[in-house]
């Protein structure tokens, strides 16, 4: 058994890896000699994998994991976590937006608070655009409102977990993964470590608007069925309005009014049509996820593992 595992998903991070390796190793060595650094290459298109393989060849605490293709942040993370053997597990991004030096205070916090999860909560975010900060703020607050689980706001995947929290997380088979939410769902005792988030060390964000929207839909459908219920609420409200309109129309008709009202008709048709499309789309999101899940495909495929005795050739056919 290892004392500490540090898991880092990496996608096109060639510029960050050397500094990452140095800072994370220093932070880990300040705590223990018995650690492993798991670097997962998520199908990068730059030199990320050769660099990781080099690091693994030079430093026997480094485990390089090469996925078969780009599986996305949450699945790359899952792949790394599935190989982690530590009693404590730290998740951190490759771009050093989250400080590795927080490891020591997070471990201390875990002990004094007897917690199973210490999650990083961002007080500020440097070097990010107003739009990113605003959408992120909105996202966390909206999700908290929608969800049945108590999701902490302004919290990414940067966190320290105990082995039993990790075991609980890995026992969840869902394909659409929103890991920070899934960890919150586990329960046990979870405490916040507040910190200031730095700007990216180098390179650019791998979370453009499209991926952020994808994550939002994954998070919403994964943690709430409120959007499905909303169809019934809409239905009830519309039926009430419809009754009033019907009564009005009949009264006018009885008093011999001529047919008029192309405008009102158009308004109603367009509103109802778009409302129905929206709700059909929501149904589709849930149904599509049900379908993907029912196929039961593996969450990720590993092409190669470098050293730490190749971790038993895990996942390689
Ligand atoms: N990442 C990944 N696969 C992807 C996209 C991102 O493994 O398809 C990794 C990336 O290398 C980084 C982390 O996920 O370590 C967070 O990505 P990023 O820093 O681009 O997101 P942001 O901090 O801008 O939200
Ligand atoms: Mg980042």
From TrEMBL:
Assigned keywords, A-Z: Cell membrane, Glycosyltransferase, Membrane, Transferase, Transmembrane, Transmembrane helix
Gene3D superfamilies recorded: Spore Coat Polysaccharide Biosynthesis Protein SpsA, Chain A (3.90.550.10)
Major subcellular site: membrane
Entry's localization field: Cell membrane
GO molecular function, one term: glycosyltransferase activity
Residues spanning the membrane: 231-251, 263-287
Pfam families: Glycos_transf_2
Domain of life, source organism: Bacteria
InterPro entries registered for this protein in UniProt: Glyco_trans_2-like, Glycosyltransferase_2, Nucleotide-diphossugar_trans
PANTHER family xref list: PROPHAGE BACTOPRENOL GLUCOSYL TRANSFERASE HOMOLOG (PTHR48090:SF1), UNDECAPRENYL-PHOSPHATE 4-DEOXY-4-FORMAMIDO-L-ARABINOSE TRANSFERASE-RELATED (PTHR48090)
Family listed: Belongs to the glycosyltransferase 2 family. GtrB subfamily.
Name this polypeptide is given: Glycosyltransferase family 2 protein
């Amino acid at each position: 058994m290892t004392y500490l595992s540090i898991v880092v998903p990496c996608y096109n991070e060639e510029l960050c890896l050397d500094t990452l390796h140095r800072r994370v190793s220093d932070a880990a060595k300040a705590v223990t000699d018995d650690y492993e650094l798991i670097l997962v290459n998520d199908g990068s298109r730059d030199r990320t994998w050769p660099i990781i393989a080099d690091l693994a060849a030079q430093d026997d605490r480094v485990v390089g994991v090469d996925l078969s293709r780009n599986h996305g942040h949450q699945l790359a993370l899952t792949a790394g976590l599935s190989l982690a053997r530590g009693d404590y597990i730290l998740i951190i991004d490759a771009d050093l937006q989250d400080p590795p030096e927080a490891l020591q205070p997070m471990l201390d916090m875990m002990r004094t608070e007897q917690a199973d999860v210490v999650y990083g909560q961002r007080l500020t975010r440097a070097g990010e655009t107003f739009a990113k900060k605003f959408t992120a703020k909105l996202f966390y607050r909206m999700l908290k409102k929608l969800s049945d689980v108590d999701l902490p706001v302004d919290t990414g995947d940067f966190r320290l977990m105990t082995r039993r929290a990790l075991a609980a997380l890995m026992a969840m088979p869902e394909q659409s993964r929103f890991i920070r939410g899934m960890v919150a769902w586990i329960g046990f005792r979870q405490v916040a470590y507040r910190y200031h988030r730095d700007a990216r060390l180098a390179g650019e964000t791998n979370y453009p608007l499209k991926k952020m929207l994808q994550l939002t839909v994954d998070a919403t459908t994964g943690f709430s069925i409120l959007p499905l219920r909303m169809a019934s609420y809409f239905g009830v409200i519309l039926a009430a309005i419809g009754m009033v309109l019907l009564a009005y129309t009949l009264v006018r008709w009885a008093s011999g009014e001529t047919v008029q009202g192309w405008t009102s008709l158009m308004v109603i048709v367009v509103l109802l049509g778009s409302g129905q499309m929206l709700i059909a789309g929501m149904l589709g999101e849930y149904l599509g996820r049900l379908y993907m899940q029912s196929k039961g495909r593996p969450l990720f495929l590993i092409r190669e593992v470098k050293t730490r005795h190749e971790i038993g050739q895990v996942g390689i056919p």
